[in-house]
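Re: your question from the hallway

Yes, I did run it. Sequences:
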Amino acid sequence: KQEVTQIPAALSVPEGENLVLNCSFTDSAIYNLQWFRQDPGKGLTSLLLIQSSQREQTSGRLNASLDKSSGRSTLYIAASQPGDSATYLCAAPSQGGSEKLVFGKGTKLTVNP
Amino acid sequence: DAGVIQSPRHEVTEMGQEVTLRCKPISGHDYLFWYRQTMMRGLELLIYFNNNVPIDDSGMPEDRFSAKMPNASFSTLKIQPSEPRDSAVYFCASRPPTGFASTDTQYFGPGTRLTVL
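Structure:
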């Protein structure tokens, strides 16, 4: 059974700092992994999707990496801004190529001006 | 596109009442997912459909919960009778057909916040 864990649960940083959010998963037979952002009172928005054949995926100041062998993914945010404040969730398929996603509980990020 | 549409956005009801949540997926998407989010348990998948057919309902907590998708543009999640422990935010999400690798992601609606008193 796939389990997804995110550490830390909350993180507070000053504006401009580079930071890393961590995600670990138990079943490494996955074909992709996704990172989502959730703003208070809103739904989830997809940020990055990494295919199993890739090791990294980049979008603007965001970079996500995937290491299937160790069951880990990281989301790197460069030069953080107050607008980056949100909860970040990672999600892995419950079984290999399943459409079912298992979500971590998220990391709540606060970027202070 | 308007994105995934959910209604109502907020629902307050009393224990024992029937609750119906509604979802309109993005046009052209053939997968539809219902999730529940609570502080304690996080985001949990309840059920998902493909081409209007329920594929996996193993996450539905009990017989009080039911979901239907009568056509490609509408789905409902019904709770009857509702209980206080059903209080949560319920999300609907849709996804394009498999094979569009760059768009394998799910698109979430804004959610329905349900409070059962």
